[in-house]
Specification:
The protein is α+β, with helices and mostly antiparallel strands and 139 residues long. It contains 3 helices and 6 strands; from the N terminus they run ββααββαββ. It is globular and about 35 Å long.
Length: 139
């Protein structure tokens, strides 16, 4: 895959940060179509951008032969978005708390913390075939 592919409520992108803006435009367009207010659009867009960036860098290790898939849907006034990579997976329990004294000065490690603060629900499903993060926000 050399460029993003959009089919309905799903976008696939190569594991390259240059495609983050394509995901952002895709997500924001659908959210506005769902009638989400600008505050919700901003919270969700920030969260998805962080998750896609993590999927590219940490999950797929920027491997050109791997992709990131983002799917969005709406049900009962809530938006659900899944971000899936094709990496080796990880143990979500290994995520360090970025507000612990030992981690305050680290330059990385705040992404999931930020996502959890902006979204209503965050689920992480990791396996040796990849990781899927599912976030939900009521709009």
């Amino acid at each position: 895959m050399m460029k993003p592919v959009i089919k309905g409520n799903r976008i696939w992108i190569p594991s390259n940060q240059e495609y983050l803006s394509d995901v952002d435009v895709f997500i924001e367009g659908i959210l506005r179509g769902f009638g989400a207010d600008e505050s919700a659009v901003a919270d969700i867009a920030i969260s998805v951008s962080e998750l896609v960036n993590n999927a590219i860098l940490h999950g797929n290790k920027s491997a050109s032969d791997k992709a990131v898939t983002v799917t969005i849907s709406k049900s009962d006034g809530c938006v659900e978005i899944s971000v899936t990579d094709q990496g080796a997976g990880f143990d979500p329990c290994d995520i360090e708390n970025p507000i612990d004294d030992a981690n305050l000065m680290k330059e990385v490690g705040r992404g999931i913390f930020i996502v959890r603060s902006l979204m209503d629900q965050v689920e992480i499903e990791a396996s040796d075939r990849g990781t899927t993060v599912i976030v939900t926000k009521c709009i």
